[in-house]
Specification:
The protein is of the alpha/beta class. The chain has 13 helices and eight strands. An eight-stranded mixed beta sheet has the order 3-2-1-4-5-6-7-8, with helices on both faces. The radius of gyration is 22 Å and the shape is globular. Bound molecules: nicotinamide-adenine-dinucleotide.
Length: 324
């Protein structure tokens, strides 16, 4: 496929993530065709996108080189799958997180596109070998798992099916980089991918500490937001350790490795997040932020404002490999 053929991307599903992907791809100058199986849904999504892109432009947070109007002009809506797929070199699926729904839509898509078209799923929790089990040619399939909201949180986990071609991983990595995302490659599929496995470890230990009466809900959140999170917005755990001993990572592990191993052996079992014991934790959280829509929406808006500010700051940050 020549680069002149690589201009159109089809987004399947026009919910939260579908709309975000459309904005990200349009910011990179791609024509984006949005399809949703609920008639009128993708047209509605464009109205919302337009408003969002204009607000981003006003806040000087619009991504890419094009104006909001130019980006909106790149996005079109379809109620017909065949028309939506016409001309696309890349398909990003964003339908409900239900295995059968995803399996069926990929089966339908494969019948309607050429053999070189890349089929990519946004799934959060389903492994590629299950998602693509009804696709005949699985070498063109992968998961591109975004983080919500993808417009500000740029990580995308690229997870191959056991049969995914290396060129498909490379092309997707190039595309994601070009549109300003931060892609990482998993070398093989695993339940939870990378991000959710790390997140699950943090959730489990936070839960145990609160449940065991060691710390409050409010304070465990401060441990992350005012402690670990300060560094993790810019450098990960590996680089953090490398920089935290006079002679780097090996030195760090000689000094602190045995302590980390000792602490790890004291970790408790997997918590029961829904049982009786969880009620106290949930109540404590709801005292801080009541779980009605008004309070949750206000906190989500605050979160997105803060993420926008952080994204602005990170724009000026160059990864350490660029400093060599
Ligand atoms: P959503 O419920 O907001 O949107 C799903 C959309 O898909 C709806 O508009 C629905 O009408 C449409 N749809 C359903 N079945 C369809 C079909 N067969 N054909 C075409 N359209 C169909 O969901 P979402 O939050 O946008 O999530 C979409 C995907 O992204 C899921 O797989 C989810 O796991 C993943 N994801 C979500 C998040 C998140 O935080 N929301 C983060 C990362 C990945």
């Amino acid at each position: 496929m020549s680069s002149s053929d690589m201009k159109i991307i089809t987004v399947i599903g026009s919910g939260l993530i579908g709309r975000s992907w459309a904005m990200v791809f349009a910011s990179g100058g791609y024509s984006v065709k949005i399809y949703d199986n609920q008639p009128g849904q993708s047209a509605k999504a464009i109205v919302e996108l337009k408003k969002e892109l204009q607000e981003l432009e006003e806040a000087q947070m619009l991504r890419g080189e094009l104006t909001a109007a130019q980006q909106v002009a790149l996005i079109s809506s379809y109620d017909d799958l065949t028309q939506a797929l016409e001309g696309a070199f890349f398909v990003q699926e964003c339908v409900f997180e239900q295995l059968e729904v995803k399996q069926n839509i990929f089966q339908d898509i494969e019948r309607l596109v050429g053999k070189d078209v890349i089929l990519s799923s946004s799934t959060s929790c389903l492994v590629p070998s299950n998602v693509f089990s009804k696709v005949q040619n699985r070498s063109r399939c992968l998961v591109s798992h975004p983080v919500n909201p993808p417009y500000y949180v740029k990580l995308v986990e690229l997870v191959p099916h056991p049969e995914t071609a290396a060129t498909v991983m490379d092309t997707t990595h190039t595309l994601m980089t070009k549109v300003g995302q931060a892609p990482v490659r998993l070398r093989k599929e695993i339940d939870g991918f990378s991000l959710n496995r790390v997140q699950a470890a943090i959730i489990a230990e936070s839960w145990r500490q609160v449940q065991d009466g060691i710390i409050s809900v409010k304070d465990i959140d401060l441990v992350m937001s005012e402690g670990l999170g300060m560094r993790y917005a810019f450098i990960g755990p590996m680089e953090t350790m490398h920089l935290n001993a006079p002679e780097g990572l090996e030195d760090y592990m000689k000094r602190y490795g045995p302590g980390i191993q000792r602490v790890l052996t004291s970790f408790g079992p997997v918590p029961d997040f829904c049982g009786e014991g969880s009620k106290g934790i949930i109540n404590e959280m709801c005292e801080l932020i009541p779980s009605d829509q008004q309070h949750l929406s206000a906190s989500k808006d605050r979160r997105d404002q803060l993420l926008m500010g952080l994204a602005k700051l990170k724009k000026d940050h160059r990864p350490s490999e660029d400093l060599n």
